[in-house]
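Support case: magnesium ion complex. Customer-provided input:
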Amino acid sequence: MSKKVFLSGVQPSGKPHIGNYFGALKQFVDLQNEHDGYVFIADYHALHSLRNAKEMKKNIISVLLDYLAIGLDPEKVTFFKQSDISEHTELAWIFDTITTMPYLMRAHAFKDAEAKNKEIDVGTFNYPVLMAADILLYAPDVVPVGADQKQHVEIARDIAEKFNHTYGETFKLPEPMIVKDVAVVLGTDGKKMSKSYGNTIPLFASYDEIKKCVMGIVTDSGGGIPQNVYAIHNLLRPASELLPLYESKAGKYKELKEMLIEDLEKFIAPLRTRRKEFEKDIPKALKILKEGSGKAKKIASLKMKEIREKIGVKVY
Ligand code: ATP
Ligand code: MG
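Agent response - structure generated as follows:
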C-alpha cells in the first residue's frame, strides 16, 4: 500500500516564530517518517504583504533554510516553490468559475480585512481559492496547519466537492490536521502570534533576542501567575511540571521570565546551530528546492491534464 500524503506551506513573509513551529512546522517533522511529504514555499501568497523583489528573494531562501534546519529531510519530503508550478494559478482560475462571491465573503481573513476597512485587493479575496488549488493538485490525505488556517482547508474541501459534483470524481477531500494544545500559540502581547503583528519569538532567535522578547511579554499587575508567560513556557514543559513551579513563584514575574529565557535558549540553540550549517551552502539548498519543484511539477501537470479533460477543453 502506498504511503499517505501530507502537504502544507509557509509564506515567505518574514522570520518564522515558535507559533509557526508548534502550530505547524513540528507536525511536518513528525509526519515525514510515515508519510510522503510535500512542503512548499507559498511565495505567490506572500505577494499580498510583500512587494519588494529583493526582500522576496531573501525570504524565499530564508524559509528554505528554516525548513532544512528544523529537520525536514529532503529524502522524505519534497520541497517546492509555488511560483515554479504554474498549474496552481491555472487551477485557481478554474476554481474561481465555480466559487461564488457570497461564499468567499464569509471567509475570516476577508471579514477581518473588511472590518479594518482596508481596500481589499482581489488576491486577498481570492486567497482561499489559490490555496484550494495548492492543496488539491497533490491529493494529500492530511494538511497540518494552525487553527487560523482551518477554514481555508474546509474551503478547499467544499471547492473539491463542488468540482467533483459538477465534472465527476476528480479530487480527494483533504483533512486538516490541527494539534489541539498548540492550535493558536499566543504572542508576547497575548494575541495570536503572527509575523505581521510584531509579537513573535523568532524560531531562530539569538540569546539576546530571546531575552528582549521575553522581557517584553505583557503581564497583568495581579501578582498571580503571569498567563502570557505561562502559555509560552507551557510549549516547552508539561503543565504537571510547570504549574507547581509557577504557583510557588506566584507574582515573581522577573524570576519566571528568566526561567523561560533559559528554557527557550535550550530549545532554540541547537536549531540556530543547524541553520548556520545550512547557511554555509546556499547553492546546495537551492538545488534541493529546484529538484523538488521538478518533482512537484510532474505531479501537478499530470493532474492538470486530467482536469482539462474533465472540463472539456482538451480537444487534441
Ligand atoms: P502572517 O502574519 O504573514 O500571516 P503567520 O505568522 O500567520 O504570518 P503563516 O506563514 O501565515 O504565519 O502560517 C504558517 C503556518 O503556521 C500555518 O499553518 C499557520 O496556521 C501556522 N500558524 C501561524 N501562526 C500560528 C500561531 N500563532 N499558532 C499556531 N499556528 C500558527
Ligand atoms: Mg498567517
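The longest helix spans residues 282-311.

Case will auto-close in a few days if no follow-up is received.
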